[in-house]
Structures are given as C-alpha cells and as structure tokens.
Amino acid sequence: MYIAITQKKYKGTSHKQILLRESYREDGKVKSRTLLNLTKQPKEQVEAIATALKNKNETIISTEHQSQGKTVGLTFIIVFIMTMLGMIKVFGKTFEAQIALMLITARIVMQSSRLQALYWAKDEDKVLDLLEFDEQYKNRLNKKTIYYGLDYMQENQEFIEDKLFKSYYKNNPPKRVFYDVTSSYVTGDYHDSELVTYGYNRDKKQGTQQIVIGLLADEEGHAISIHTYPGNTNDVKTFSDQLDKLKKRFNLENITIVGDGGMIKSDDIKIIKEMGYDYITSIGKPSIQALIDNKESGIQMSLFDENLKEVIENDKRYILRQNPLRRDEIRETRQSKIDRLQHFIEEKSDYYNTHYKAKTETLEKNISKKIADLKLTKFITVTYTYKEGEITIFDKDKKEVLKTKELVTITINIDEKERNKVAQLDGCYIVTTSLTNTTKDSKEAIHKAYKTLIKVENAFKTLKTQFLEIRPLYLKTDKRIIGHVALSMHAYNIVLKLKEFTKLSNLDFKATIRELSNVKTVINTINKVIVFETIPTVNDNLKILFSKMKLKFPTKI
To answer: What is 173-323+427-473's CATH number?
Structure first.
C-alpha cells in the first residue's frame, strides 16, 4: 500500500486528493486501486500512516486490525442484474420502492419472512448500501414500514410490468407468449379475504385454502406478467383476462398464444381469432378418439408414431406424434395398477373369509371403489362366487367355535379387447394450431413451441419450491398477498438471468450461489481511528462468472 496525492481541476478550481492505494496483479499486469480517501482526515493521521508505510518493519493493517464484515457477493450480483433488467430505474427511489427492491433481493437470498429480511438487511448484509438507502431511509426501516414494499408492489404492479416490458423488449416484442396457471396454498385465518378460499389444489395439499396464480412468459421463460386470482378460480376463466392484457396493456399484434389443452377452449379460440392472434394448444384423449372415429377426418391411428405427422383440416392444423418412452411408461403403470388391484382383492377376500361379521356389501363396495380409483373400470370387472363354508371364531370364553358362513372367491375379468383399445392411444398426443401456413411455420417449429410450455412450468417450480419458495403465504391482507406474488415474479426473472450466466460460464448454479453468499467485506482499522471496508479477491469460478457478465467486481463499497 502507498499514499498517492492527486490534483483535479473542476470549473477552474484545483482540488487536492489524498488517497490510500494498493498495487495488485491482473492478467500479468500491475494495476492499482483506491482503498480509502484520506483527504478529510487530520494531517497528523495521514502523516502517521505515511510513516508506517515507509517503515517496512511496521504493519499498519494486519490480521489483528481486520475483522469480518457483512455479506456482499450475492446481493451485489442481484443488484447488478436488477440494473441490467431496468428494474432499478423503473422502480425509482422512493422509500417504498427501495423497500420493494430490498424484499426482492431477500426473496432470492434467504426465502424468509419479512421480519427476518429486516434483520438480515440491517445487520448481516450490504443490501441497503448497494440499493443506495440514505440514512433517513435506513432509520425509517422497521417492523412496520417493511410491509410498505408489498403495498407498493400491489399499487404499482401494472405500471412496473408495463415499463419493464418496454424496457426489456424495446422494439422487438415477443412473437409467442406462453400462459399457464398454478395454485399456492396459504395458512392462517382469512375470513375477510376475497382471494383465499378452497379450490382445486395443484400442490396436493389437502384441507388448505389457496390462491390461484396466472403467469405470462416468453419463449425463454422470462416472466412478462403475473396475476393473483381467488383460490376457486377455474383455469379457463383466467384466460380471457390475459388476452385483454396482451392487447390493451402491452399493445401486442400478430402474436401466437401458447397454452395447454385445459386452458384454451373453443370459445377462447374464437376470441383469439377476433383479436388477430394465433394459437398453439393441444387436445385431450377423448377429442383425439373422436377425430379417429370420425370417418370424414384425415386423422387415423396409423399416423401416430415417433415421427411428427400433420393434417390440415379447414382452419386447423394438427401435429401428431406417439412418444414411445411415454407409451411404455403408461403401460407399465397400468400393469402396476392391475397388480395392486390383485393384491388388494386378495387382502380383502382373506379378511372377509376369516371374519365372521365381515359384510358382503362392504367387501364389494370397497373393491368397486378401488377399481374406480385406479381408473380400470373400462376393461376390468370382478366376479364374486359365494359358497357355504366354515370359519373358526373365539367365543366370549376364548374357546374356538366353528361357524357357517358364505365364503367368497373373487375372480378378476380383463376384457383384452377393451384393454387394447384403451392402450392404443398410450403416448399419443396432438398439438393443434391456427398456423396453417406450412412454409412459414414448420410442424417441427410448432411442436417445439408447444413443448416450450415446460419453461412456464419450470418458472412455477422456481417460484414455489426449488428456490424462491413463494408458499406457504403468511400475509393477512389481499393487498399484500398480491404484492408478495408480484415481487416474487421479479425475483424469478433475476434468478433466470443468473442461471443463464452460470450456464454460459459452465458453472453449477447452486454451487455458485453458495460461493457468492460466502463473499463478505473486510473491516480494516488504521491507527485505531480510521476504519474502512474492502472486498477480498474472489475465487477463479466467480472471476469466470463476472467475465461472462461483463462485470467488474468492486474492491470496496
């Protein structure tokens, strides 16, 4: 380290700066960086430091004069990506907006409650400095005001989404938009909520209330907009809202909307066409069978194999395929169900034949229910044969007594013809679209676009389980539930971008997160008076990441 004195002129006036600097090597070249501005320090202190630096036997900064500071690595990257995505500019510098940005950062770093995020931001991390909270904002941030960030997200959700859409896509809006729906369960008492209620639970979390979430994304999985619906909302009922949003808010023209078969119904297709849009979706097994059975249709069972086939009828185009892996998987599962049914029937018949009071009605009812639950009713029936026999029971004195009872033999009947009929569509699916120009849109491109829906499903996985853990919710007002869902979408986009950079760098995402989380500042003390923070050199993996991001990681905050 050394002291450098520089002179800078500004508007004709010369300004003197006294800087504490150090030299370092990078890519074989000697460079220097400023550690501390000493200009405003007392002259005696500067002279003492200069003397100590000249005396090679005296160390003014050693391990005895250094201590570990706050975490900074992951937060710095998050704020950098926020800036890249235009979020810092769009959100603005109000107190509430700054809290919202801090909560988005906390959702990525720790996936915890607002209270834990508050303690983390104030005591453990440099997030407030990186987001440029001034002292007034820092002092105002407390257990009450931290919820202002959620209020801000709810009140400004549409404004933020619209501005970020323009910022992100500029003059190149997406040509295809993907839409899907999920649910997220909540805990607690929500008597006054219009959002939280019981409904079809995709989380398989029985007995819990929930909300429904609809997400629009582009082909890369980048989230465009998110909407929170009441927990009993049917998927199909959410779709018209999204069409209106695409047209009126995002001003999109000549786009293709991609959604699964349960989402885009015939009424929606009519509206899509009226709006000048196209669609890509799929049809279910009953509809496929109806087309095959229709003698006027060109869709026949012989067309389904591993290679894509297509049929154009009227204003619809059908892309057909049978996935051999999925076919075999379904058939193995079906056989497994039959085996389970056989085992179940053996257990129930053994119980019936060894328990005098066991009832015939209960036996047959349980077996019928099991067949229905396993969805085997189309080709499986059972025959009950009763024959008088004797069973041994114990009387009240615990003595063996022989009793007469109608004992049962149960036979499983499999209709092989019906079984084969059910199995013929195993692994078969049809993607249908209004894009009938085969020159402009190949069947391979349309098939790939439909399969891209998996990226929206992955977005939900990231939001709900894998990383951001949006569920369960513990918020008590609808306004703040909506705000929480909205900020989680922005957190997802940041994670998506970071995943892109780690992939470009050939690095493991989770390992990179751990490495970034371990980067902390170092608090340096000189002469027990001057204190400043520096950031240590990062490892080679992070250097590769920063290079791909075109990011110069700072040496001090």
So the answer is: 3.90.350.10
Residue 556: the pLDDT is 75
Structure tokens that stand for 382 in this block: 């059972």
Q: What distance in Å separates the CA atoms of residue 269 and residue 238, rounded to the nearest whole number? A: 14
Cross-strand pairs, 4: 19
Q: Which residues pair with 313 in a beta bridge?
A: 316
525-533 contacts, C-beta under 8 A, 24 or more apart: 525/61, 525/65, 525/66, 525/67, 526/49, 526/60, 526/61, 526/65, 527/45, 527/48, 527/49, 527/52, 527/60, 529/45, 530/36, 530/38, 530/41, 530/45, 530/49, 532/35, 532/36, 532/556, 533/69, 533/557
Residue reference for tokens 């809202």: 241
Query: CA nearest 391: which of 408, 367, 372?
Result: 408
Residue tagged 């297709």 (tokens): 269
Residue identified by tokens 């004992």 is 407
Q: How confident is the model at residue 529 (pLDDT cuts 50, 70, 90)?
A: low
Number of other residues whose CB lies within 10 A of the CB of residue 207: 7
Length of the chain: 557
Q: Which helix (H) or strand (E) holds 329?
A: helix 324-354
* Beta carbons of 130 and 76 less than 8 angstroms apart: yes
Res 347 pLDDT > 60: yes
Structure tokens at 130: 């990186």
Distance of alpha carbon 202 from alpha carbon 205, whole angstroms: 8
The H or E element spanning position 513 is helix 509-517
**Cα–Cα distance measured from residue 260 to residue 6, given in angstroms and rounded to the nearest whole number:** 65
- Biggest CA-to-CA distance, the chain: 117
Report the DSSP pairing between strands 278-283 and 256-258. Answer: parallel
The closest of 334, 491, 338 to 421, measured between CA atoms, is 334
And the tokens for 364?
């047959």
Collapsed DSSP state (helix, strand, coil) of residue 476: coil
The reported pTM is: 0.82
d(CA 288, CA 307): 17
CB contact at 8 A, 260 and 239: no
**pLDDT digit string, tens, across residues 20-31:** 777 777 667 777
Q: How far apart are CA 373 and CA 111, in angstroms?
A: 38
Written as one string, the DSSP assignment of 254-296 is S-EEE--TTT--HHHHHHHHHTT-EEEEEE-HHHHHHHHH-TT
Closest to 81 (Cα-Cα) out of 554, 556, 550: 550
Structure token pair of residue 56: 């090679």
CA 281 to chain centre: 22
Sole residue written with tokens 């890249």: 84
Alpha-carbon span 217 to 258, nearest angstrom: 10
- Could you give the CA distance from residue 340 to residue 256 in angstroms, rounded to a whole number? 44
Selection from 44, 42, 53 nearest residue 4 by Cα = 53
Residue whose pair of structure tokens reads 């989680």 in the numeric block: 488
| Residues paired with 524 in a beta bridge | 66, 532
Query: CA-CA distance, 177 to 25, in Å (whole number)?
Result: 48
Strand residues in 274-371 grouped as ranges (E): 278-283, 309-313, 316-322
Under the banding of pLDDT at 50, 70 and 90, the label for residue 350 is very high
